[in-house]
């Protein structure tokens, strides 16, 4: 049973940094199949209904907090693996892009298990790892799924087992800074690994805030408490309870 109950709670504060420049004129447009989107639970493959509505509610709450604090870079992570971070990050990004005043960049920053491209059904030639390791220009990585306006993906490519150092590197910090500041109305969503890897913690200082995906029936209280302790210096935008069974009718 697929269901998503977004619940947002507390916030803390963060600051913005100055920017460098990257040109985005060569973003490639790619056909995406509605059937693939639907198979991977992406809202762009769904008709209006409760599934789409859950992410619109999440979008509204997230936008409120981002605007209140002047934030535009958020990470999606979770205490345990396979909680649904990638699906949640993509759907949040898509729902934000549905808001006419926003452009959205979704960055696959899970260098260990990049999966954003798989969910959209394409295999990227280059990804974030190629920029970080081999200086492939960012503009050669960017992809716009056809028919989805105001939405650009910076995909991952080959999996990298030792990625924490790369995510914590000054080069990554400069990239995040550039991505955050290039367009004033843009929100950047980063899909991260789960929090028991060093990666998510290494990357957290780069973003304004994090959204925690909790997996109903699997994330334990201890895992959640540990996650909040680990992220103590990163503002928590809220928690999203994923894979929850709907309550029975009274
Ligand atoms: N709301 C949901 N209901 C049912 N299944 C879901 C839901 N959200 C995600 N899933 C499924 O759970 C699995 C894991 O999802 P996803 O890849 O998004 O998790 P993840 O946290 O990004 O995993 P990883 O730790 O490997 O990065 C996928 O098979 C996905 O289709
Ligand atoms: Mg993932």
TrEMBL record:
- Is Nucleotide-binding given among the entry's keywords? yes
Q: Name one GO molecular function term.
A: kinase activity
Cross-referenced InterPro entries? Bact_polysacc_biosynth/exp, P-loop_NTPase, Wzc-like_C
CDD domains, per database record: BY-kinase
| Domain of life from the UniProt record | Bacteria
Please verify whether the record's keywords include Transferase.
Answer: yes
Keywords in alphabetical order: ATP-binding, Kinase, Nucleotide-binding, Transferase
Q: Which PANTHER family match?
A: CAPSULAR EXOPOLYSACCHARIDE FAMILY, TYROSINE-PROTEIN KINASE
Q: What is this protein called?
A: Putative exopolysaccharide biosynthesis related tyrosine-protein kinase
Organism of provenance = Methylocaldum marinum
Which lineage? Bacteria, Pseudomonadati, Pseudomonadota, Gammaproteobacteria, Methylococcales
